[in-house]
Amino acid sequence: MSDDFGVEQVVDKEDLELPVAPVDRIARLEIDDSYRVAMDARIALADILEDYADNVAKAAAVLARHADRRTVKAEDIDTYFELFE
């Protein structure tokens, strides 16, 4: 089934920076309690969230550098989303 979505391989849990438990809670926010979230789904979601956060942080750092700052501020994150999302 993962092939249907172009997913090749889920990363190892040990390779993640984000802890899996909070990711599990996020995954469950909008789904019916009768569903469970498998460990490989939690790991895949954590991997995607890490990649997304990395991309946003890198872009925000570029915006901070453009503003001649070495500190990424909330306004840099907001500007990223205004420009690119």
TrEMBL record:
Entry GO terms, CC: chromosome; cytoplasm
SUPFAM superfamilies: Histone-fold
Keywords noted in UniProt: Chromosome, Cytoplasm, DNA-binding
Molecular function per GO: DNA binding; protein heterodimerization activity
Record-annotated Transcription factor CBF/NF-Y/archaeal histone domain positions: 17-78
Cited Pfam families: CBFD_NFYB_HMF
Protein location: Chromosome; Cytoplasm
Classification via InterPro entries: Archaeal_histone_HMF, CBFA_NFYB_domain, Histone-fold, HmfB-like
Primary residence: cytoplasm
Origin: domain of life: Archaea
Family classification: Belongs to the archaeal histone HMF family.
Stated name of the protein: NFYB/HAP3 family transcription factor subunit
